[in-house]
Amino acid sequence: KYLVLTHIFVHPAAFIRGDMSKKFSNLKIKFVRGITPILKLLDDKHNVVDELNIQKWDTDTIQVFTTAAFS
Asked: What is the three-class DSSP state of 4?
């Protein structure tokens, strides 16, 4: 499972607001002001396994990563 935390960054926002994020049923989006966008990988018990800074990722990179991770 993944949790995306973001603020006002262009590429993560485009991924979240577009149709791309709707393809992943176990993707949870949380908006938190004042932090850089991060992608958290959670295990089945909702413990954080990995945390990635996606501030410099473009929309395609986010889509490719989430597609690979959820398949």
From this structure: strand
Q: What own/partner pairs with CB < 8 Å and gap ≥ 24 does 51-56 have?
A: 54/4, 54/11, 54/12, 55/9, 55/12
| Residue in 6, 21, 14 with CA at minimum distance from that of residue 54 | 6
Which amino acid is located at 7 in the chain? H
Q: Give the pTM.
A: 0.67
**pLDDT-derived band of residue 11, with 50, 70 and 90 as boundaries?**
low
Q: How far apart are CA 51 and CA 37, in angstroms?
A: 10
Q: Label each residue of 13-43 as H, E or C.
A: HHHHHCCHHHHCCCEEEEECCCCCCEEEEEC
- Dihedral-angle region of residue 48 (phi above 0 means left; psi in -120 to 50 means alpha; beta otherwise): beta
